[in-house]
Write a structure and sequence with these properties.
- This protein is of the alpha/beta class.
- The chain has a single domain, classed as TIM Barrel.
- It is built from 11 helices and 10 strands.
- Strands 1-4-5-6-7-8-9-10 form an 8-stranded parallel β-barrel, surrounded by 6 helices. A two-stranded antiparallel sheet has the order 2-3.
- Helix 3 crosses helix 11 and helix 6 crosses helix 7.
- It binds the ligand O=C(O)c1ccccc1NCC(=O)[C@H](O)[C@H](O)COP(=O)(O)O.
- The site of ligand LARABZUK has 18 residues, from strand 10.
């Protein structure tokens, strides 16, 4: 699946144009996650659909969802901007950025420096760089470019092999473990445990995908995660604020 997504991205990059420049207030993803009042910092995702689940939320208003996440006290918001596979859009990110005061992560399949420049133009505070999608040298180059443009990067890996490849090149400030295998979609929280054992102590560890309950959250925190990235389970909630509260505290509110 990842190869199919990347093939479409290569075509999109050919047609990519930058939007008009606007100015935005920047927020640090790392600082926000570190300062969470909860067991872990929450990156809450705005995700309409996915290749593994199809449509996740029918009643999808990205700005309203972003605003509700912000009101619920999340530490950061991840916005899927890929149109073809996730029914996202780069305008969703810009529109959300204008109504929130937490860092906004651009969740997409970034393979080219033009997409990093685009991310800064649309108002991203941070970008996702996927270890399974990039050579280590290229990933590092895009990471440094993001920093030069005032953004941070969440460097995501799934396998030990990919983590080793990345660490030979550099140590990311924020390291994400995707519990989902992007080729098979198999999702196991224990992936965070395996990777945490190899992760450098200097990197802030974020566990991504397949986190549905407060029990799940406690499990990955037990493995060493300081942040969690959650999409589907929150997007399934009619009441976003209650969903965030239940996930983070394990206590139901009426
Ligand atoms: O979500 C997918 O099906 C997917 C398929 C192929 C590549 C990436 C995919 N997801 C991107 C993500 O990393 C997740 O949206 C994110 O970690 C949240 O996961 P979840 O909480 O399980 O929705």
């Amino acid at each position: 699946m990842l190869e199919t997504i990347l093939a479409v991205k290569r075509q999109e990059v050919e047609r990519l144009f930058l939007p008009e420049e606007q100015s935005f207030t920047n927020y640090s993803l790392k600082e926000s996650l570190k300062n969470s009042p909860h067991l872990a910092g929450l990156i809450a995702e705005v995700k309409k659909a996915s290749p593994s689940k199809g449509i996740i939320r029918e009643d999808f208003n990205p700005v309203r969802i972003g605003h509700e996440y912000n009101q619920a006290g999340v530490q950061a918001i991840s916005v899927l901007t890929d149109q073809h596979f996730f029914q996202g859009h780069r305008d969703f990110l810009t529109d959300i950025k204008k109504v929130v005061d937490v860092p906004v992560l651009r969740k997409d399949f970034i393979i080219d420096s033009m997409q990093i420049a685009e991310s800064a133009y649309i108002g991203a505070d941070a970008v996702l760089l996927i270890g399974e999608a990039l050579e280590a040298e290229k990933l590092h180059e895009l990471y440094l470019q993001a920093q030069d443009l005032g953004m941070e990067a969440l460097v995501e890996v799934h396998s030990e092999e990919t983590l080793e490849k990345v660490l030979k090149e550099f140590t990311p400030e924020i390291l994400g473990v995707n519990n989902r295998n992007l080729h098979t979609f198999e999702t196991k929280l224990s992936q965070t445990k395996r990777m945490a054992e190899l992760a450098p102590k200097e990197s802030l560890l974020v566990s991504e995908s397949g986190i549905f309950t407060n029990e799940d959250l406690r499990e990955v925190v037990g493995y060493g995660a300081e942040g969690v990235l959650v999409g589907e389970s929150l997007m399934k909630q009619a009441d976003i604020k209650k969903g965030v509260h239940d996930l983070m505290t394990g206590v139901n509110v009426l």
